[in-house]
Amino acid sequence: MERIALSDLRPDPEALLGRIAYLRLAFFEAASSVAGRATDLADREAVTGVARALLEQHGAVVAMLEARGLGSALAMHPYSAEIDRYGRRLGEAGWHESVLTLHLTTGLLDDFFAAFAAGMPSPEGPEVSRLLEADIGHDALVRILRAGIAADKRLASRLALWGRRLVGDTLLVARGALADARDEHGEPTTTDERRVEPVLNDLIAAHSRRMDALGLTA
């Protein structure tokens, strides 16, 4: 079975932009919540910077939707319930677990959507890919997590368990977006799961590298 690359698929542009716009908004809200729970002022400032970057990206995607003559709320609405359920499945967690969630889920989904968006026509496709490949402040999140692990050795095992839990639910969000794929005539197309599976395995491998960089077992 020939492997398929995400960039070989043609996502429906309006669907993909609506989905990404709502994800950016949801991640912004999550980052704002994490920042508000920080007990250290420097940590709060760092996570607030991440929230600001996510909101700026949301605004950039909204501008693309508006350039197409679409209202952002209408474009995001079909994906809001699914993404809200995803957020609820992650549940309430300790503060460091929430920082790890922000670091790992944005990393995994940005990898996925940057590759998927490459199948959109120029200039939108490359623009979306560049947007999602831009750093939102991951180094600051890593520093917070490493400092927490250094101060509390028991935290590492908790975070390792939490990081492993995140993968399945986050991949469901990626799989859901594959429903936006279209054929060369713009019609919905069914993507063979066996051909896409290696791509998803690549996402898991990148997730594992992020865990490894923190000294956590994926």
CATH topology assignment: Ferritin
- The average pLDDT is 89
Say how many strands there are: 2
Q: What is the top-level CATH class?
A: Mainly Alpha
Radius of gyration: 17 Å
Fraction of residues in helix = over 70%
Instruction: Describe the strand arrangement of the main beta sheet, using strand numbers.
Output: 1-2
CATH superfamily, called what?
Answer: Ferritin, core subunit, four-helix bundle
- Terminal residue distance: 28 Å
Topology order in helix (H) and strand (E) letters: EHHHHHHHEH
Structural class: mainly alpha
Low-confidence stretches: none
Beta-strand residue fraction: under 5%
In the residues, how many domains can be counted?
1
Overall 3D shape: globular
Largest sheet data: 2 strands, antiparallel
Total number of helices: 8
Oligomeric state of this protein: single chain
Annotated CATH architecture:
Up-down Bundle
Protein name: Ferritin-like fold-containing protein
Pfam family, one: MiaE_2
Domain Ferritin-like: 16-176
Organism: Amnibacterium endophyticum
List the helices and strands and how they pair.
Elements: E1 10-11, H1 13-37, H2 41-67, H3 72-90, H4 95-117, H5 124-133, H6 138-151, H7 153-177, E2 181-182, H8 193-213
Antiparallel strand pairs: 1-2
Helix pairs in contact: 1-2, 1-3, 1-4, 2-5, 2-6, 3-7, 4-5, 4-6, 4-7, 4-8, 6-7, 7-8
